[in-house]
Write a structure and sequence with these properties.
By secondary structure, this protein is of the alpha+beta class. It has a single domain, classed as Translation Initiation Factor Eif1 (2-Layer Sandwich), CATH 3.30.780.10. It is about 40% helix and about 25% strand. The protein has a five-stranded mixed beta sheet with strand order 3-4-2-1-5, with helices on one face. The longest helix is centred in the middle third of the chain and has 15 residues. It is globular.
Length: about 100
């Protein structure tokens, strides 16, 4: 065998990326301070699959340098900067609908 026998076609990876952009678009980002001692958070709703919620939560916490948790099918991010949160979500192929402030 030579080194050229291990070639993996790039087309299959491209199709997966295009499909994930279409699948992950229906989420809502709510601004909230209720029940949290007045501390502002964003509650991200609409992520049905827990297999996708955990990596997204980890990425957001690392990218935004803030705390967060996953509770009752929602991601709660302790971040006040809407533009940074928006850019982080778009980097993960999510387009949120902004609600509540």
């Amino acid at each position: 065998m030579t080194g050229t026998d291990t070639h993996i076609p790039a087309a299959s990876g491209t199709e997966d990326i295009n499909n994930t952009k279409k699948k992950f678009t229906n989420i809502e980002a709510w601004y909230s301070r209720k029940g949290r001692g007045g501390k502002p958070v964003y509650v991200i709703k609409g992520i049905k699959d827990t297999g996708r919620a955990e990596p997204l939560l980890k990425f957001l916490k690392q990218h935004l340098h803030c705390g967060g948790t996953r509770k009752d099918g929602e991601i709660i991010i302790q971040c006040t900067d809407k533009t940074k949160l928006s850019s982080a979500l778009s980097a993960m192929c999510y387009t949120p609908k902004w609600c509540g402030g």
